Amino acid sequence: MSIRRQLLRADSLADPVLGEIGRAAVLIETDETVVDNLSFERVRVLAAGERTDVDQHPLAENAEYINLPGRTLLPALVNAHTHLDLTSVGPRPYEPEEGFASWISMVRESRPRDPGAIQDAVLRACGLSRAGGVAMVGDIAGDWTGEPGDALRRSGMWGVSFLEVFGLGEREAASIDRLTEMVGGFCRRHERVKPGIQPHAPYSAGPGLFAAAADLAAAKGLPIATHLAETRAESELLASGKGPLAEMLASFGLWNDSCAESLVSGRSPVDHLSAAFAKAPFCCAHVNTCGSNDRRALAGAGASVVYCPRAHEYFGHEHDLGPHPYRELMRDGVNVALGTDSIINVPPDQADRLSTFDEMRLLFRRDRQDPTDLLRMATVNGACALRFDESCVTLAGDPHEVAGVAVLDAPSLREGLERDLVPRLLAGARPSERKQ
Ligand SMILES: [Zn+2]
Predict the structure, then answer these.
(1) In CATH terms, is domain 77-369 a member of 3.20.20.140?
(2) pLDDT band at 103 (very low <50, low <70, confident <90, very high)
(3) What is the distance in A from the centroid of ligand 1 to the CA of 310?
(4) What is the Å distance from ligand 1's center to 230 Cα?
């Protein structure tokens, strides 16, 4: 095993814990490790901070010096909600007049089904993630064969491969049985990529399925996620049993009395899932609408919210539901991370990468959010939402392993956000050949 030690010297480093430091350096150690017959580059940060301090580190003496003038070093970013297998679909426009239910039908028809095509799409998405400085993802595996999780492992990325489950009305019990059987076969040998569970959404999984999934997640120590409070149609369905999603379920032959009885609670989407939230800390994608009681309930349950700003704009949720409540959620103590959702909703001119840095830029430009706060949302908050230790996405602290180190072609984080720049992964999460 060969260990390489490198001293990366840049104009600055930006870190969720250290903040921004000018004339900075990061001392890293990389080695090749083999897990489950696959080889990966493992990256340890030995020291990070002002160049004059890091240069004095005893282990810096024999390190290879890499000078990066005009650049900023960052910890690898986290994309806490995405659908990597949909990368093969590519960016598509959204037609508001046709509605969300019609968009869901398009995704169901266009998604890859063949195992080889799924692997290819996920591996390609991992490459696009690295091109955007992302090394950890919360991926919603749209397939039960294990292909998306295998591809994630093979790529050298970190994250969670969430097994997605649907089941309403009469189909709910069978979904619970199937999920229980699948989860019984999960193993956690590969700690960089964990299995997780995702009941799809309150309009596609019944409350019994949510509760059973939360019990399984709590018993097995697995991350659990869902799509929540995404559209007005979802709130309308749960409140009154009416609207476009009720019509969509009817068109799938799923809407009947037993389905209506379990779904129509007259409550908000967050309140509708309160029993499941009491059992396990959910990672909730979107939460585009959320009152103060709901925010307090999410904070009390230790739930995280993954805000996907570009997806929010793509669907025009602001016109329908108002601004996203991410600042109110954070103020009320909810952990808020950033996600890209799938490449389908990424603007075509940004589709050469799949990066939460583009989400940070949108919030920086539109809302003038503080750059370091945005970096927290795209790093430590994301790791926390995916149940990883936050140390894997900060350069701060005693020597420790990280998901990766990224580099931005700008002398400061703020300048990178102001210009059309994207960080790329410098070390970590590199794909390697399968060992024979
Ligand atoms: Zn999603």
Answers:
(1) yes
(2) confident
(3) 12
(4) 9
